[in-house]
Amino acid sequence: MHPQIFLESPFQLLKEIDEGKENYQTKYNWDLSYESVEAFLTKLHCGDLRALGRFVQVEGMMTSSKILGERVFNEFEAYKKFILPVKRKRMEVLWKNLKNLGLISQKKQFQHP
């Protein structure tokens, strides 16, 4: 996934790999919390914290930050409750370490479109 593609249009991801739609469904919407993968991507694109938490849980914090930018770090405290406990604990350690090293800049939160 290329960051620019996602930022321009969340649906471009599905257009590029049309045959992989079932894989996206399994990867991001395994429990059918969203009516479709497109609904999940729309929520993620619009800044929904639950969708952001799920994306970070699946992709990991560093990969997610390459795709979604600094909001992955800046909004961590707000969306971490949506990440499963074991992964959340690991990410909390990583986040605290990055913050203590000064690698996370505390900018204002993502502005929803």
Q: What report would you give on this structure?
A:
- This protein has 113 residues and is mostly helical.
- The chain has one domain (3-100).
- It is built from nine helices and no strands.
- The protein has helices at residues 3-8, 12-16, 21-28, 37-45, 49-59, 61-68, 71-74, 76-79, 85-100.
- Helix 4 crosses helix 5 (49-59) and helix 5 (49-59) crosses helix 6 (61-68).
- The longest helix is centred in the last third of the chain and has 16 residues, at 85-100.
- It is globular and about 40 Å long.
Biggest β-sheet description: none
Shape: globular
Order of helices and strands: HHHHHHHHH
Structural class: mainly alpha
C-alpha end-to-end distance = 22 Å
Roughly how many Å is the radius of gyration?
14 Å
Number of strands: 0
Total discrete domains:
1
Number of helices: 9
| Helix fraction bin | 55-70%
Q: Poorly predicted ranges (pLDDT <50, ≥5 residues)?
A: none
Summarize the structure.
The chain has 113 residues and is mostly helical.
Write the SSE topology:
Blueprint: H1 3-8, H2 12-16, H3 21-28, H4 37-45, H5 49-59, H6 61-68, H7 71-74, H8 76-79, H9 85-100
Helix pairs in contact: 4-5, 5-6
Short descriptors:
single chain, 113 residues, mainly alpha, 9 helices
